[in-house]
Every structure is written in C-alpha cells, then in structure tokens.
Design a protein that fits this description.
Layout (H helix, E strand, L loop, with lengths): L1 H26 L11 E4 L4 E4 L1 H22 L2
Antiparallel strand pairs: 1-2
C-alpha cells in the first residue's frame, strides 16, 4: 500500500510541475494551444476546441526527450 501512495505522490508532483510550466508558457506568450492546425468551433452556446497541431508538436518533443533519456540511462 505504501508503494501505491508513492506513485500517487509522484504523479501529483508531475501534474503540479506541468501546471507551472503551462503558467510560465502563457506568460511568455508561447503559442501553445494556438498553433495553426488547432481547431476551434464556436457555436451559439458551445465551444469545441481540438488542439491537433499542438498535440503533434508535444508528441514529437516528448518522443525526442524520452529517446535521449533512454540513451543516457543505458550507458
């Protein structure tokens, strides 16, 4: 049970760090979430937002970072 608690704490810290990064990205006016290719539909009473281009860019960046981390950890 203690191991499960450590996992929850780890993911909680990870979410907090991700939130802090997003706050600073917003203050630095980075176009995260506003890239060309992100789809927004604004209806009369609803808004639908699908960050397609942002998802692709974040996927590529995370893939490169994880690849580099795995290469450094294997030595």
């Amino acid at each position: 049970m203690a191991e499960f608690g450590r996992i929850l704490v780890f993911f909680g810290v990870l979410i907090v760090l991700f939130g802090v990064v997003l706050i600073f990205a917003g203050r630095m006016h980075l176009p995260i979430g506003r890239l060309p290719g992100d789809m927004v539909y604004r209806g009369k009473h609803t808004t639908f937002y699908f960050p397609l281009a942002t998802s692709i860019v974040l996927s590529i960046v995370l893939s490169v970072v994880l690849y580099l981390v795995s290469r450094m950890g294997g030595r």
